[in-house]
Amino acid sequence: MRGCKYTEGVPQGFIPSNFRVVERREEKKLAWRSWPANALTLTNLGAGALVCWWAASEFDLGWSPAEWLDSLGLLEAWMGITGADERRVAGLQWMLLVWMFGQLCDLLDGAVARWMGAENEQGAMLDSMADLVSAGLAPAFVGMALMMEWQAIGVLPPGWAWATLLPLTVVMAAAWRLARFSVQATSKNPDRDLETLDFKGIPAPFAALFWGGLLLIWSQCNGNEGDWLWLLGLAGATLLPLGMVSNSPQVGLKHWGANRKWDLVRLGWLLMVLLVCVILRPAGVAVALISYPMLGAISYRLLPKKTH
User: Fold this and answer.
1) Beta strands in 237-290 (DSSP E)
2) Could you tell me the residue range of the domain that residue 107 belongs to?
């Protein structure tokens, strides 16, 4: 087909490989747009790796991040900020802060990529790999550490030592779920049964929020107050992974602005969670964690079904 640079046609004899310099300049001009989103994703990855390291330490849960802070000369200042009386509690709080900061970065990286016009398959795959660490490996390590703590104090029933390995199902489910999501995200014909719900199955980052919430409750309990937490831990190592690999529709927390009605649903749920946590304290965190899968189930019932 004939044409020239002033028309939409391709000039006769035009060979793109002959103009690689132009292509490289265009790629270089656009490459920087992905840096902010990738920085957020890699921060999430690094935060998850730190949580894995601290949770897998030979010390009791919480001591490793406390010792790390102490080695930097920041432990006393951190204990003053948080009001923690014990080094171990201060370590748990620091561990939670790092972990949740990583989850905040995960919440923002997609929005930043869209805003910068830098959405691409590499960024999507990088996000999935970061989630596998921060929302797969990290919850599994924390879950195993908590189960071992509950076993040590005699909370687990006799003969239930095998339950300390159950949280490994979280990383397995996260790998399965993220692989399925990556295939759907890069497919030309993504499988979307519903237009207004964001995911099939509980999103992997919820595993980080669930086990992080249990860690927060456990760090605030005194004496025998947290003896019931192992039941939630058991649910987090069985029912949660099953929900992650299921096809049950769920409401995501990243897609604000796409639908005003569902923005109100998300906002209402977040306000409810905040209110419950303020009123019920540690028990409120447990209620908030359980309410998220229920939100997806209720929303699915309220959605108009497609007709073909």
Assistant:
1) 249-250
2) 35-250
